[in-house]
Inverse folding.
């Protein structure tokens, strides 16, 4: 019978699946829980049902981006200038202005659409995945590849990728607030719910877009894509407009302020020109062109380009940013709160030492000591109390790295979990949770039930009443507890992660799993520090960034790793002391290098405490319980390899390689991006203000205009845009990580930057008037004078790009001269400035004439003088500061 008929026969729809027995649904979907779908069957269903995807974030259309360019106030000013030119009968100038308007719009359109498409492509890197059984093997697949009938394994921290009917569950609970608005997690079980149950009451279902908060389970997909509950809701919601980043909002505010300021200045200059009897058309058009020149319309484009390129550079270095705003904040980070496992360490857990009552053994000796009864019981327990699986035949290992390591140690001693389960079939599971800090599996064995327990050693010891010795079971008295506590501390001091194992026999599978246990022994696992972490820690210290380890591991283990990587490991605070530390001694936060045995609530309190003290906090995490702290942090950093979907969704940045040095690279990139935007803004404004000074002073003093309106527009297009783009593409100063973080409240252009901009614009304008004076004194007239002054200010602005170096950099070798884009921009703009006088059509439009050798001498000398003066002034300031 066709699948659709089978599904119809049992009334299986996403709206009724919750009320039907799981066995009927599995039968209708023709799937066995232990095997899952066959690959060929999954492929057929993918063709039939389509991709498991809801309408993604709307792709920004080309028309929208084009209209965004045309909404610019600069476009309005250019259009007004063109209309005036046509009104006064200046056909050539009107056509030229329209051409400039079209070209300027085209540059902005191409830049913005490429940035938008780059960001859209980046988002595709962050797609979620799911653990699925296919052909009897557990595989990790992209969420969009799921089909109805797929068997999904879920555990705490997973984001659900399809609507699932629960088949198996162990202490399973889910946060469904995204669908129901209820913030309390909902307990889940395989038992059917009432047929008329509302979504919040469908306890036998897991819904796409929700998150597992506790326990583990197995479910069968009954709806995917738009047929899910989330898919239906998404059709009712209009997607919100994307939020601009803080740096973009600051630039928009800066441009708005400049529009008003320049508008007022334009009116004043136009009135003065009219009063002095200058040509009305020339005065009005010069005023409008002056306003266009003064507004840095290229800044938003330059900022978008810098941010988008920075995101791509970070992605290539395994740091994926979902939000542009994160790029800006990264450069201001002062504290990094980092997890240990997988971030500072390799996350390649391996069993190094086993300790039972008969003695301690190295993992390398497990094969030889496999006949030891106590050791066999320890290995037996840690292999049974396990939810990982070892790969074979090209299939990768699946599950928690620690549990994989336990299985590998068992296999080395000849214990295979699948073979063990034949004699010890699973009767019940009790998933690990943060309250008990233990997990248990219950196995039927003969006429009794065997409980295998593992977890944090202190908690396992506390739950035990006896222990296993060579002479059988005996009471676990206080002396024995102290002895085992000492052994736990000894293993921890060697940098090992310690687990304890315990067992018991019971007559029922429903007994309390963590009571009346028999202690078996300890397992010491090693997760060595990454080789590249110590240097990254030193880089952070030089950059003025404190690195603090925040881990759930034992204090002695954390201290051992901390010392190995160069952290301030002498002052360790445990989670139970965090509340007292935050409330009574907040100043002590600056001294703590490691927080150990920290709960999720305590981790959140630590983040808030550092923020309250004025720090900008970057926080790493990988679990569902880390999500609040990740959201609270200024920069939440989730692990891309081992992180849960919930953690990734809460974070602003995802580490695709789970490596701590990647955070340092991202911080460096964030600083570079902010510096590039600031540098480009300073360049554009100093050039534009110099044009304002030249035209304004000339009109006010009734001098011949040194630069004509259309020439201003040409400069605005050529000497502003391309060098500014090149500055935005810079690699930054080599010592940028050796400086303290900037104040996050610091504007893009503060008082110091504005002072520099104004002081640098004065020599640019002065060089132009010097060229004007030399031209008039030489007896040149008409187009010869205008050509000389136009090319002088044009080349002066072009050389001015080299003044954008940091005051800490050398005059010759610096971040600007090392930027190949700068040289390309200088070469291109130099050609675009030198060619027009020799091209009749362009010469007529721009009112220029081919320069003579004398004119070139004035142009070169007067255009180089401002940069030389600026460099000399910088040198004097540096020497003065050193003398203080």
């Amino acid at each position: 019978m066709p699948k659709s008929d089978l599904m119809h026969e049992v009334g299986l729809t996403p709206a009724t699946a919750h009320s039907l027995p799981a066995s009927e649904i599995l039968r209708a979907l023709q799937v066995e829980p232990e095997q899952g779908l066959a690959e060929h069957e999954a492929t057929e269903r993918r063709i039939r049902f389509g991709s498991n995807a809801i309408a993604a974030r709307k792709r920004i259309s080309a028309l929208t981006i084009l209209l965004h360019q045309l909404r610019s106030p600069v476009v309005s000013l250019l259009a007004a200038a063109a209309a005036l030119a046509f009104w006064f009968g200046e056909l050539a100038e009107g056509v030229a202005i329209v051409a400039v308007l079209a070209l300027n719009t085209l540059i902005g359109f191409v830049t913005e659409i490429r940035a938008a498409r780059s960001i859209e492509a980046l988002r595709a890197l962050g797609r979620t995945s799911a653990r699925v059984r296919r052909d009897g093997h557990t595989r990790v697949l992209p969420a969009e590849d799921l089909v109805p009938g797929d068997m999904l394994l879920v555990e705490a921290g997973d984001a659900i990728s399809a609507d699932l009917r629960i088949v198996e569950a162990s202490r399973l609970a889910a946060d469904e607030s995204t669908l129901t608005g209820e913030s309390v997690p909902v307990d889940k079980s395989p038992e059917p719910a009432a047929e008329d149950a509302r979504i919040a009451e469908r306890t036998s279902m897991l819904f796409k877009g929700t998150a597992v908060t506790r326990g583990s389970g197995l479910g069968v997909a009954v709806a995917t894509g738009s047929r899910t509950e989330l898919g239906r809701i998404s059709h009712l919601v209009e997607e919100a407009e994307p939020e601009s980043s803080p740096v973009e909002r600051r630039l928009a505010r800066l441009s708005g302020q400049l529009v008003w300021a320049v508008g007022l200045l334009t009116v004043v200059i136009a009135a003065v020109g009219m009063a002095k009897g200058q040509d009305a058309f020339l005065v009005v058009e010069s005023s409008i062109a002056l306003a266009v020149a003064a507004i840095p319309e290229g800044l938003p484009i330059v900022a978008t380009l810098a941010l988008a390129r920075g995101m791509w550079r970070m992605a290539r270095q395994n740091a994926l940013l979902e939000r542009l705003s994160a790029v800006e904040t990264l450069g201001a980070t002062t504290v990094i709160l980092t997890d240990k496992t997988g971030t500072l360490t390799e996350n390649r857990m391996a069993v190094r030492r086993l300790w039972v009552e008969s003695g301690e053994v190295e993992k390398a000796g497990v094969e030889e000591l496999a006949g030891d009864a106590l050791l066999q019981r320890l290995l037996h327990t840690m292999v049974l109390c396990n939810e990982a699986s070892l790969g074979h035949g090209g299939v990768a290992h699946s599950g928690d790295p620690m549990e994989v390591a336990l299985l590998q140690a068992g296999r080395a001693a000849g214990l295979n979990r699948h073979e063990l389960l034949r004699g010890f079939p699973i009767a019940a599971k009790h998933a690990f949770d943060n309250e008990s800090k233990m997990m248990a599996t219950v196995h039927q064995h003969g006429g009794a039930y065997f409980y295998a327990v593992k977890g944090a050693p202190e908690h396992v010891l506390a739950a035990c009443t006896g222990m296993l010795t060579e002479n059988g079971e005996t009471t676990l008295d206080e002396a024995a507890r102290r002895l085992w506590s000492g052994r736990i501390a000894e293993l921890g001091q060697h940098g090992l992660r310690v687990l304890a194992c315990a067992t018991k026999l019971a007559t029922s599978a429903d007994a309390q799993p963590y009571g009346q246990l028999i202690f078996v022994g300890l397992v010491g696992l090693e997760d060595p520090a990454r080789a590249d972490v110590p240097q990254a820690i030193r880089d952070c210290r030089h950059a003025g960034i404190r690195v603090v380890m925040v881990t759930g591991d034992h204090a002695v283990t954390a201290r051992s790793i901390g010392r190995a990587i160069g952290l301030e490991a002498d002052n360790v605070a445990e989670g139970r002391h965090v509340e007292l530390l935050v409330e009574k001694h907040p100043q002590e936060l600056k001294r703590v290098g490691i927080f150990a045995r920290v709960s999720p609530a305590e981790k959140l309190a630590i983040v808030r405490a550092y923020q309250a003290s004025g720090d900008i906090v970057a926080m790493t995490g990988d679990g569902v319980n880390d999500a609040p702290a990740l959201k609270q942090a200024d920069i939440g950093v989730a692990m891309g390899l081992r992180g849960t979907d919930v953690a990734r969704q809460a974070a602003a940045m995802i580490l695709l390689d789970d490596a701590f040095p990647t955070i340092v690279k991202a911080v460096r990139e964030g600083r570079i991006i902010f510096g590039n935007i600031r540098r480009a803004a300073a360049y554009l404004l100093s050039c534009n203000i110099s044009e304002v000074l030249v035209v304004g002073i000339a009109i006010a003093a009734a001098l011949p205009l040194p630069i004509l309106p259309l020439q201003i527009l040409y400069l605005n297009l050529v000497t502003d845009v391309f060098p500014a783009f090149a500055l935005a593409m810079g690699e930054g100063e080599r010592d940028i990580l050796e400086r303290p973080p900037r104040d996050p409240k610091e504007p893009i252009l503060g008082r110091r930057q504005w002072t520099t901009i104004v002081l640098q614009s004065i020599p640019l304008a002065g060089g132009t008037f010097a060229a004007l004076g030399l031209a008039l004194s030489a007896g040149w007239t008409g187009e010869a004078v205008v050509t000389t002054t136009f090319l002088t200010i044009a080349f002066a602005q072009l050389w001015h790009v080299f003044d954008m170096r940091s005051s800490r950099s050398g005059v010759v070798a610096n971040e600007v001269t090392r930027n190949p884009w700068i040289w390309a921009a200088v070469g291109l703009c130099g050609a675009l400035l030198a060619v027009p006088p020799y091209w009749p059509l362009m010469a007529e439009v721009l009112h220029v004439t081919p320069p003579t050798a004398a004119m070139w001498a004035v142009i070169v000398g007067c255009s180089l003088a401002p940069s030389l003066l600026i460099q000399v002034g910088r040198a004097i300031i540096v020497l003065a500061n050193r003398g203080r």
Observations:
- Residues 660-700 form the longest helix (41 residues).
- Residues 1-11, 236-244 have pLDDT under 50 and may be disordered.
